[in-house]
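notes to self, project folder thing:

trying the whole complex as one job this time. last attempt i did each chain seperately and stitching them together was a nightmare. two parts in total, labels are on each line so i dont mix them up again. if this works i'll redo the older ones the same way
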Amino acid sequence: AQSVTQPDIHITVSEGASLELRCNYSYGATPYLFWYVQSPGQGLQLLLKYFSGDTLVQGIKGFEAEFKRSQSSFNLRKPSVHWSDAAEYFCAVGATSGTYKYIFGTGTRLKVLA
Amino acid sequence: ETGVTQSPTHLIKTRGQQVTLRCSSQSGHNTVSWYQQALGQGPQFIFQYYREEENGRGNFPPRFSGLQFPNYSSELNVNALELDDSALYLCASSPISGGARNEQFFGPGTRLTVL
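result (full assembly):
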């Protein structure tokens, strides 16, 4: 069955510190992978996506993610966190055939300390 | 270019009532998907519409139904509301031309509270 696991429900980092949010997926083939951010009461904004090719992808707001097939992971990173990055982050797998739905993880809530 | 819009923003209903949520897709997008996001959870796929036909459904009962109109806007209808239906309902649109590679663009959501 297709699934996405985000092991960390909450993460707290200090402003200026580095960040890594974990995402593991289960999918029968190479999936399409996404990271979204959601601020309180808001919809979802796409940070970055991976379809194929270079396994290190760059996104908006200084975020990047690395696809590791051997580990079935797609972790999100940022070298230096800003207070405005505090939000909830969702990893998602996009089906590559049939119904083009997204399967989301349960999210990681990021808190940034000043 | 107008993004995905949803109405209403917030809604309060009581158990057993029916509700209709609306979504206008982004210009040029002919596919609409609906997701339910319960508090503290990730969005769950409800169903998808393409060219006015249902194009796949998640694990939701038949009292969740939808429509897509010729202008690609969409409605989500929920009958016999239950307390567990309280959630943020997200609509997402995408152009189908590129298949699964197309990014889904999300609206701001409708917050439904069932009392």
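what i see at first glance: Chain A touches chain B through 28 residues (CB under 8 Å).
need to look closer tmrw
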